[in-house]
Amino acid sequence: MKYKDNIQGVVSLQPDYLGFIFYERSKRHFEGTFPAIPDGIKTVGVFVNAEQSFIKSTVEEHALNAVQLHGDESASYCEDLRAVLGNDIEIIKAFSISDRFDFNNLNVFTPFCDFFLFDTKGKERGGNGILFDWNVLQRYDVEKPFFLSGGIGLQELNQVQSFLKSKAGEYCYAIDVNSKFESEPGMKKIKELKKFIELTKT
Questions:
Q1: How many CA within 13 A on the CB side of residue 194?
Q2: Strand 187-188 to 182-184 pairing
Q3: What's the CA dihedral at 77, 79, 83, 88 to 10 degrees?
Q4: Could you tell me the residue range of the domain that residue 90 belongs to?
Q5: CATH number of the domain to which 81 belongs
Q6: How confident is the model over 8-33, as pLDDT tens digits?
Q7: CA distance 72 to 127
Q8: Neighbours of 152 (CB within 10 A)
Q9: Using one digit for the tens of pLDDT, what is the confidence trace for 112-153?
Q10: How many domains does the chain have?
C-alpha cells in the first residue's frame, strides 16, 4: 500500500493484512503516516536487507504488527531480529522459488520465523506479477505455515481454490496479492480486490 485514500478503500474490504514497503529502491516505497486502520487488520512492514535498528524504529513509529523480510536475510539475522522485536511482532521470511528450490534449507529458519512467504523468482524483489509452478510446493514438508504469493489475480482464482484443497495447500495460511490488482505500483483496484475476496470465501 502507498496512497492514503487507496489504503482507506482497501481497509473497507477488511483484509487480514496490509503491507507497506520500507525499501527505497521499490516503486511502492511508503513514506508518511498511516491513515486510521482498524485493530483487526494487521500492518506489515516489508524490508530488504535492512539494519535491524531501522526495522525496530519503523515498527515502533508505525505500530506495525509484523515484518516481512524480502532480502537475503540469514537464519542468524532472523534470530537476532526476534530478540530485538520480541515475540509480539510476527516475522515473515520471504523466499523466491524456482523449480530446484530445496525446502530443507528452511529448517534453520523455523525457530525464529512465524511464517514463510513463497514468491516468484524474478528481476525485482517481489511485485513481478509472475506465477511460479505451485507443484514445487508438493515437496514442502516443513511444519510452518506459509503465504502464497507471486502473480496472483482474478484469473488465478480457480487455481488458488484448487491449490488450497490439495496436499500442498495444507500449510497455506494466507494468499498474498499485489501487482495483479494494481493500476500503477501501489495503487490497488478496489472493485477487483473486493471480488477476489468475496469469491475466495465462497
A1: 8
A2: antiparallel
A3: 110
A4: 4-200
A5: 3.20.20.70
A6: 999 999 999 999 999 999 999 999 99
A7: 17
A8: 22
A9: 999 999 998 655 554 556 788 899 999 998 989 999 999 999
A10: 1
Instruction: Give exposure, 74-106, as e/b (b: 16+ Cβ within 10 Å).
Output: ebebbeebbeebeeebbbbbbbbbeeebebeeb
C-alpha cell at 69: 523480510
Torsion region of 108: left, alpha or beta (phi above 0 gives left; psi -120 to 50 gives alpha):
alpha
Q: Which stretch of DSSP H or E encloses residue 176?
A: none
One-letter amino acid of 58: T
Burial class, 24, CB count within 10 angstroms (exposed 0-12 / middle 13-18 / buried 19+): exposed
Residue carrying the nine cell digits 502473480? 151
**Residue 19 in contact with residue 1, Cβ under 8 Å?**
yes
What residues contact residue 159 under an 8 Å CB cut-off, 6+ apart? 134
Place of cell 516505497: 29
Q: Where do the DSSP E strands lie in the chain?
A: 17-21, 42-47, 66-69, 90-97, 115-120, 146-148, 172-175, 182-184, 187-188
Q: Is the pTM of this model over 0.85?
A: yes
Alpha-carbon distance of 17 to 82, in angstroms, equals 20
Q: Residues with Cβ < 8 Å from 34, sequence gap 6 or more?
A: 7, 20, 43, 62
Residue type, 151: G
